[in-house]
Specification:
By secondary structure, the protein is mainly beta. The chain has one helix and 15 strands, in the order ββββββββββββαβββ.
Length: about 240
């Protein structure tokens, strides 16, 4: 059997997004219409791709505890889909559609270097039957992200990147107020995509008078790092 020729590839470019899990949710009163599949709320302020969850007893087949994505937006109505950019849910009865808007993911931009890390905890499990050969078993795992950032600002607003700002501000908090939710994924739509909670650290880099303004962010994993479906399976829209 002939083996396939292998070729090197450039290092994968990952996108990083963060959101604040401590944001206080507010239940918004709305109604659902079977005839149009629309959810109506005057001046709702939602945008395509925003995420909502329904509260109380929503119109069928909408379910509580399920995350839906906003599609087909007008000033006072919107529809929801089970997937981002997907087909709107076919609402089968008029009724309530009271919802909670989930905090949106914010892209962390101007990343110049990105390194996901893993740490392993092992314990010696050698015994008499191993005839003097030692062995170890993995008993724990840790993870984190190390990110080099260029502190670019908006050309018009002169404001710092919102994603960088979220990390920088949270880095000055103490637990549990410092907790952030982060997800990172292959920018080109590859299958590698992960999500978890982190405690962030932030360090400005300084430098000589010719240096660019740079910073390092270290995101220390809190609990399990979850494998997720790439939210942009066809590639990141910049």
């Amino acid at each position: 059997m002939t083996e396939e020729q292998l070729a090197s590839q450039l290092a994968r470019r990952f996108a990083v997004e963060v959101r604040d899990p401590s944001a206080t949710p507010t239940v918004v009163t709305a109604t659902a219409a079977m005839s149009t599949d629309n959810i109506t709320k005057t001046a709702h302020g939602l945008s395509v791709g925003d995420q909502v969850q329904f509260d109380g007893t929503p119109a069928a087949p909408l379910a509580t505890g399920t995350t839906y994505y906003v599609v087909n937006v007008t000033a006072n109505t919107f529809k929801v889909s089970a997937t981002e950019g997907g087909t709107p849910v076919d609402i089968s009865a008029d009724g309530d559609a009271n919802y909670i808007a989930i905090a949106n993911w914010t892209r962390v931009r101007a990343i110049s270097d990105f390194k996901p890390t893993k740490d392993y905890k092992t314990e010696d499990d050698s015994d008499y039957d191993s005839e003097g050969w030692q062995s170890e078993s993995k008993t724990g795992m840790g993870w984190g992200l190390e990110i080099d950032l260029i502190r670019k600002i908006g050309i018009t607003t002169r404001a710092e990147d919102p994603g960088q700002q979220i990390i920088r501000v949270k880095a000055d908090e103490f637990p549990p107020d410092d907790l952030l939710e982060v997800r990172w994924f292959d920018r080109n739509g590859g299958e590698e995509a992960f999500q978890g909670y982190v405690s962030p650290q932030w360090e400005d880099q300084g430098g000589p008078n010719t240096a660019l303004d740079k910073a390092k962010a270290k995101l220390m994993g809190q609990g399990k790092r979850n494998v997720i479906t790439n939210p942009y399976p066809t590639g990141l829209v910049v």
